[in-house]
Amino acid sequence: MELFSLSEKHVSPKDKIVNVASVPQRSPFRYPGGKTWFVPKLREWLASQKQVPKVLVEPFAGGGIISLTAVCEGLVGSVLMVELDDEVAAVWKIVATGAAIELADKILRFEMNTENAALILNEEPNSLLEKAFKTIIKNRCLHGGILAAGSRFMKRGESGKGIGSRWYPETLAKRLRTLHLVRTKIAFLHADAFDVLDEYQSAESTVFFVDPPYTAGGKNAGRRLYKHCALNHDVLFQKCIRLKGDFIMTYDNATEVQNFARKYDLQAKPIPMKNTHHAKMTELVIGRNLHWMEA
Fold first, then answer.
1. Which domains does the chain have, with CATH numbers?
2. What pTM, to 2 d.p., does this model score?
């Protein structure tokens, strides 16, 4: 596949914008920059492998929709989720260690209102379970689900419902209980993505989904949305091309990113999506061989 100037005019006609409402929602997070829209492409990519991958490593797990979809749909043998953010990590530790039912129960017992939410957010959690619960409360009542410093309670919310407009306790509990059923196939590391990529560089039957914070090319989204946004993108590309297993990267369609793909002789293809504000845009899928996207 030729790498060219990757603008919207190069989007394949068959690549239509995914209606995220049609994709099974498996994560307890509403995560800024989440990849729900990419799930259909994830299925295509994993189906193109010569055999079912033993492990999918997601070094920037975030809301986890990619890993959770892969394991819940049996697309891989197991997943390794990696996240540096300690609050997000607390939730995935709870899931991976078999305590998701306890977290689901706490969610069901909680009465969401501004006073109760503020009380939880102002308290210092005294256990991993309490920290995970606090993280879910923050994610569900702060504007845009943003956990980074400076985020505030949503005011008007969805349909004017205010702070409770994104609080669906029964739905969240159901998702956590579903994840509890596949917990033995979910491993989690609270670690730096670069270290994990180095550790698994020679891993066989392992594939990697790499979705870093979008800070390349002077973009500010990653800096605003995530606590850990500082990233050397050139080094990330270097680490990915050394991987023995197959990998794909998803990135903002920025000139600097296109140049990295050219520099490391990788293929790149734009695909359409809608951002949080429903604006149409394209993102890049990058890998060694994207033949599966042309099928």
1. 8-293 (3.40.50.150)
2. 0.85
